[in-house]
Amino acid sequence: MRNLQLIIKREYLSRIRNKTFVVMTFLSPVIMVAMVMLIAYLTSLNNDEEKIVGVHDVSNIVYDQLQEQENTVYLNLSYLDLRTAIDSVDKKEYYGLLYIPSGETDAELSSHVEFFAKEAPSNFFLSDLEQKISGVLSNRKLENTGVNLATIENSKAQVNIKIENFSGQTTSKMASYVKMFFGGAAGYLLMMFIIIYGNMVMRSVIEEKTNRIVEIIISSVKPIQLMLGKIVGTSLAGITQFFIWIIFGSILLFSVTAIFGIESTSIQGQAAATAINQDEMQLFINDVLQLPLGTITVAFLIYFIGGYFLYSSIYAAIGAAVDSETDTQQFMFPVILPLMLGIYVGFFSVIENPHGIVATIFSYIPLTSPIVMLMRIPFGVAWWEVLISLSILFATVFLVIWMAAKIYRVGILMYGKKASYKELFKWLKY
Amino acid sequence: MKNLLVAQNVSKSYGDYKAINDLSIEVPAQSIFGLLGPNGAGKTTFIRIINQITMPDTGKILLDGEPLQPSDVQHIGYLPEERGLYKSMKVGEQVLYLAQLKGLSKKEATKRLNYWFERLEIGDWWNKKIQELSKGMAQKIQFIVTVIHQPKLLIFDEPFSGFDPVNANLIKDQILQLKEDGATILFSTHRMESVEELCDYMALIHKSNKILDGKVSDIKKDFRSNTYEVGISPRKQQEFIGDLKQHFEVTPAHYHSIHDDTKLHIKIPDHSNANDLLHHLISLGEVNHFVEVIPSVNDIFIKTVGQHA
Fold it and tell me: What is the C-alpha to C-alpha distance for residues A295 and A385, in angstroms, rounded to an integer?
């Protein structure tokens, strides 16, 4: 045990003292925040562009009702004939020309509205315009049939179906997306973590092998101790990095928003504009709070431990089997494959039906279960399902560690021999 | 004399390949024991078994009369043939880490490292990284790592390969000093001269089998061929060779000499001795050179391996 501690300590220290590690740990949040800022800035830049739209509306049905908006200016060109109007819009490089025909019937009117533009306008812009025009025309129709608009305005009812489960928790239709987001983020994070730190374990094994120090160490400790110490030490370094990211990243984000005055209300305002009213915003926050956040966190940790040990012991065995990093290619694909499969199955079949047969099976298969089960958990999974999945996972973890230790034990003392799968299989029996 | 290390009928196979076959040796305490054999004979496998890196299929290893246990690693110091250190780790930290793995406390390890820095007359390398050291300097650190926990049994696998002559000499002196201090040393090498110089005992391993072992001086006695190297100025040049050939086996010899002698290898029959030959030679002329031909370990090695090939 004392030796295991010593190895873990050395591995941990050598990881976190590594220059690349230090740079990545402190630079990544900066890069992330900078990216977010850049994207936000570029998007706002795009929206800030002023659009001038000519309107040719001879009977003046719509033009009066079009209100000036922040970035869009409507110019009445009805005094020109259509051809000239189009030419002048083209010449002056306006955004486009909206043409409302002077139809006799409303039906004729609504199907003959046209928009002339040099380049196809954005879908957002068009649907916004369509909504406005159809609103104007609908109101016109209603007035024509003698209905008082004020009465209608007063009689409008906002319907929002609230979903309530049998234990009395209310959620909104947003909840599914929230759950998917949290599940997906957890699964994706787990995969990234496994790949990054699994690779670190592998590189460290290769380093000891090429340094030729490994024989000196295993004359003092058992190879499995060295392997486990390496895996645990590296995972601790990973967890350290993860926590630094979270702390550093949130400090950075807060200070940046404070300095540049980007208010979170503007995001809320946009959300409101896309037809989410205040009630729904409230429900959204409720959704997040009502997620089994505690369960998700605990599940993340347990599945992380299982998944990480499973994959990093495979990585360690690969590291032991090769002489240099360039030889690892042939073994890498079978390792990455189940991880990618887990992610895709998660994103496609869990969204579709979190309790469907495909999602369920993949949340039992140990190579994919850490990712898929994590994605399913926000939707509520029976405890016994989690128990089965975890039992299979940890039974496999012990089996794989045992096998990896055998390959590792033989592999670290093999030089210059290119290991094939057949060879690895033979090592299991030594 | 007490044996520190005893191997009893040790065998080890890798698949169909038999790396060691029924090997038994006894290494007396406070001696230097040479394990000799061509490359691929099974020396490294055997050493790894002693270090408990590999488990034998059959057979037993006794250290100080007791079967080998996992805790015995602290009594063994091992310098493998394939050796190295963490390149980006500092010397002090690295040696302390490896010494702690051998069971030393950090405090004790620090004290001993400073002692060895002095003993090998190297400066304060505590905070230097291995990659900043020259190869010779790194080899000294490697040696310290092997001996710092004061093991009863020291195992050197091809210790002089990769050491430059100056460092090789330094290490040789240190090994002899360690023996004086009470350590038992097991050597594995295919370089015969080092056995001549250092070893008290030896075992020859060839194709997984032990083909010879014992005290080096005894083995040499066994391999003596009763042959003497002689330089003589005969009085009667013509009859002299013929006369000799009647009594002995005579072949020409080659060695450097300041005399213009006839140089011969003369083998005497089992029933006579050196004095008989000398008397005979004196009667024939003036003897300037008379020495017994002692087989070198190299000769013994080649001869024995040839017999078993």
Answer: 14
